[in-house]
């Protein structure tokens, strides 16, 4: 698969910014990912992200670090942080921007080091793709955490994108799958990738799956548009 995301980040880092990443979803929506936003400062981050960064502690793994904006803030504020991304271009940009510790890997293939905090922002839990994969990811995250460790993640309940009836009920298509499973396709300049699944997870389902996998789940903060920040901590036995 072409590293479209990484190429776009490399272009921006090299002052070769001419266009943004275009996304197409199975919800019949077309949108843009503005490249400057991926290089934002702490002051430009949404409140949920700022709260998450302030809750980070100990040794931190920034999962899906992208251009490294979260990791760099943590590093600048004295935290021990590793930025992990499956995009080779993203990792190259993180290094160019001054991030000291990076890993080029798929998170499910990453082993051998334990952390106090796993950070998954910008709907980072979406990497699970489908609800049926969520337990696999949570189980692997558990293996990467030290005793008392935590996962900080944000996501959105996308029920608001479906029609509402007069009684306030939501008309969700009965297609046999969870409504938060969305197929995406992205393009950048002349490149395009095949559709891939992405998961938007409502808080109650996250809470249920967290409990089943040995985590306590706490709602830290809610955003203005059906988004939320959650903290998962390992249960003490």
From TrEMBL:
GO MF, one example: methyltransferase activity
Domain spans labelled Methyltransferase: 60-149
Protein name: Methyltransferase
Species, as recorded: Croceitalea dokdonensis DOKDO 023
Gene3D superfamilies: Vaccinia Virus protein VP39
Keywords: Methyltransferase, Transferase
Record-level GO BP terms: methylation
PANTHER family: METHYLTRANSFERASE (PTHR42912), METHYLTRANSFERASE DOMAIN-CONTAINING PROTEIN (PTHR42912:SF80)
């Amino acid at each position: 698969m072409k590293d479209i995301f990484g190429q776009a980040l490399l272009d921006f880092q090299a002052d070769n910014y001419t266009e943004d990443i275009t996304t197409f979803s199975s919800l019949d929506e077309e949108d843009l990912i503005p490249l400057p936003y991926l290089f934002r400062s702490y002051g430009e981050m949404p409140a949920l992200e700022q709260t998450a960064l302030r809750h980070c502690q100990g040794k931190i793994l920034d999962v899906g670090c992208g251009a490294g904006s979260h990791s760099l803030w943590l590093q600048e504020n004295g935290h021990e942080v590793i930025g992990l991304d499956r995009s080779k271009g993203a990792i190259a940009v993180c290094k160019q921007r001054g991030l000291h510790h990076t890993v080029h890997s798929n998170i499910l293939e990453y082993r051998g080091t334990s952390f106090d905090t796993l950070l998954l922002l910008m709907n980072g839990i979406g990497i699970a793709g489908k609800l049926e994969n969520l337990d696999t990811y949570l189980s692997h995250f558990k293996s990467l955490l030290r005793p008392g460790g935590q996962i900080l993640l944000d996501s959105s309940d996308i029920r608001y994108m479906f029609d509402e009836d007069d009684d306030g009920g939501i008309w969700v298509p009965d297609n046999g799958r969870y409504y938060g499973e969305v197929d995406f396709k992205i393009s950048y300049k002349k490149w395009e990738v095949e559709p891939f699944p992405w998961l938007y997870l409502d808080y109650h389902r996250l809470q249920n799956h967290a409990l089943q996998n040995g985590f306590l789940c706490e709602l830290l903060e809610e955003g203005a548009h059906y988004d939320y920040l959650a903290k998962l901590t390992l249960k003490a036995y």
